[in-house]
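lol forgot to send this yesterday, sorry. struct tokens for the thing we talked abt
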């Protein structure tokens, strides 16, 4: 524990280890939110910390914020003190550069987010709107008292966004691409889904899939406890190769995935690509069977095979989602190319508080102009829908 204060009959605590938060109470708060995801589960956040993936040494110092009333958790959020902006997917490097050019420090900053996870959902777990707003006030106060440049909440849901707007935080929007199940009459299979696409898009997908099949590739899928330790080992090899190809370092350690296999196995789905009896690629999805949601996460291959990425990361997951009557598949951050594969643009949100009045005004002006650009971009994308009229 690093800090404790009280406000009326609330007790506000800042904890330097997510494991210090009561798991049952945290998960109960999460269950009360309408669109909770597996990434906000207590076990997920603890695994990030205990596997040394999101710790002070990697630039993610936990400062988890909890609000208690009569010993009962009424609000909480994953909060980190950060000395960089890696692993966030909402880019504020230009803000940091502007601070530096004016002789000011942008880092460290305060960040409410799930590390390395651009998945929209509740970030401010709260019993009611008042408790949700209290979290935001507490964040701003912590940042002010510590003389930090700013506080940020990333990929928040509608309730969080309303609370941020009410307390005067600045809002920023970005665009992701998600597939959603057809209303009224769910797709019968992948072919039924393809039939709804424009001929050009449908033909391109069929050609890409044929190229992969002609290369002798087949797939197996493994859900939950069906993913063996050997499967996890192969996946992690593929995962690290993807980062190596981009001259980067993996965010997540092998121990993190071992902890997922032990504590949250039912939330993972692995696709393995085979050629001539050997594994050549893998893609990993997170799944929430109760919510009917799947989330594209990581992929990699041990040898280059044309169009294998599309098959492993989009077509196999989409076919699985349709077969299992899932409601949506989130393809991850960015990627306009996903539209041609039936994933449509979705607006996502973040909220920001800056301590410096002049910089706050400048950022507010920038966000107003950027927001207009995002709105125009969404209109343009929706005019290019890949589906038949």
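and heres what i got for the seq, position by position
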């Amino acid at each position: 524990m690093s800090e404790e204060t009280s406000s009326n009959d609330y007790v506000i605590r800042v904890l330097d280890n997510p494991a210090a938060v009561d798991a049952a109470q945290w998960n109960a708060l999460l269950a009360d939110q309408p669109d909770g995801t597996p990434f906000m589960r207590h076990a997920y956040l603890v695994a990030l910390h205990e596997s040394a993936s999101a710790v002070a040494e990697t630039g993610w110092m936990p400062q988890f914020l909890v609000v208690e009333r009569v010993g009962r958790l009424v609000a909480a959020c994953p909060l980190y003190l950060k000395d960089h902006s890696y692993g966030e997917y909402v880019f504020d490097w230009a803000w940091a550069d502007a601070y530096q050019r004016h002789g000011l420090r942008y880092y460290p900053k305060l960040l409410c987010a799930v590390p390395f996870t651009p998945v929209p959902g509740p970030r401010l777990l709260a019993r009611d709107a008042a408790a949700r707003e209290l979290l935001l006030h507490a964040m701003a106060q912590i940042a002010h008292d510590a003389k930090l440049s700013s506080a940020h909440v990333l990929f928040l849901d509608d309730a969080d966004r309303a609370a941020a707007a009410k307390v005067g935080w600045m809002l920023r929007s970005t665009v992701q691409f998600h597939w959603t199940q057809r209303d009224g009459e769910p797709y019968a299979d992948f072919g039924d889904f393809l039939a709804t696409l424009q001929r050009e898009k449908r033909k391109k997908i069929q050609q890409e899939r044929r190229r992969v099949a002609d290369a002798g590739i087949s797939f197996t899928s493994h859900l939950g406890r069906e993913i063996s330790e050997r499967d996890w080992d192969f996946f992690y090899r593929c995962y690290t190769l993807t980062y190596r190809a981009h001259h980067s370092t993996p965010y997540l350690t092998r121990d993190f995935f071992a902890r997922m296999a032990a504590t949250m196995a039912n939330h993972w789905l692995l696709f393995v690509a085979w050629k001539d009896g050997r594994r050549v690629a893998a893609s990993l999805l997170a799944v929430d069977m109760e919510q009917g949601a799947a989330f594209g996460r990581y992929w990699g291959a041990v040898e280059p095979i044309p169009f294998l990425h599309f098959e492993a990361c989009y077509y196999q997951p989409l076919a699985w989602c349709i077969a299992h009557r899932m409601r949506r598949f989130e393809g991850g951050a960015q990627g306009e190319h996903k539209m041609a594969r039936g994933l449509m643009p979705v607006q996502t949100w973040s909220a920001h508080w800056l301590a410096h009045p002049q910089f706050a005004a400048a950022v507010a002006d920038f966000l107003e102009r950027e927001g207009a650009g995002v709105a125009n971009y969404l209109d343009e994308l929706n005019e290019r829908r890949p589906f038949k009229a």
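The chain is about 35% helix and 25% strand. anyway ping me if u want another try
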